[in-house]
């Protein structure tokens, strides 16, 4: 996939930097069946078509007439955290899923050298980074996310519960995997481990992650 076919600027994404009256559901950078066999069309129909759409619809409903109405998505997430649970959950889940969909590619992408070097410098080895990412994804009890984040001038791997996005802690996510059951149950049943291994090994668009590293 050509990099300019995908959302290259997470920060300036039109659904992040709000340009319309209402938020819309982002367009996927691939067709709904493009991630098969690793992520099925059924999962995308449910996860993107129903769950993500519902977050967008609820966000529009909950910000109407509030102080958040004219903020961009990132500011809504930061400002509503611990202040307005309904707005926060739906805004953060919209932001989380924008990163998640963009972080995947229909064809396997090799990790660019600059990203590999940075990960090795920060997290000892790619195997260790992969292991920590999968481990923290598995340890996230119930619903949540696992991320690679820019933090304190370096990189780290962290998990968050429910819809929490690391930007509320001053960390900038460059890769995120959804570990809510709706992300893997159709294809992997309760096997979150195989889902996370497949995500890292087959689905991640490392060019996009590298771009986030440069820009975040
Ligand atoms: Fe999700």
Give a description of the structure:
With 216 residues, the chain is mainly alpha-helical. It has helices at residues 41-63, 73-80, 85-102, 113-123, 126-139, 185-188, 192-203, 206-215; strands at residues 144-151, 154-161, 172-178. It has a three-stranded antiparallel β-sheet. The two termini are 22 Å apart. The structure holds fe (ii) ion. The site of fe (ii) ion has 7 residues, from helix 1.
Rg: 16 Å
- Structural category is mainly alpha
Strand adjacency order, main sheet: 2-1-3
Distance between the termini: 22 Å
As a percent range, the share of strand residues is: 5-15%
User: What is the N-to-C order of secondary-structure elements (H for helix, E for strand)?
Assistant: HHHHHEEEHHH
Molecular shape: globular
Low-confidence stretches: 1-11
Q: Number of DSSP helices?
A: 8
The count of strands amounts to 3
Bound molecules: fe (ii) ion
Q: Could you describe the largest sheet, including whether it forms a barrel?
A: 3 strands, antiparallel
What is the average of the pLDDT values? 91
Name the helicity range.
Answer: 40-55%
List keywords for this structure.
216 residues; mainly alpha; 8 helices; 46% helix; binds fe (ii) ion
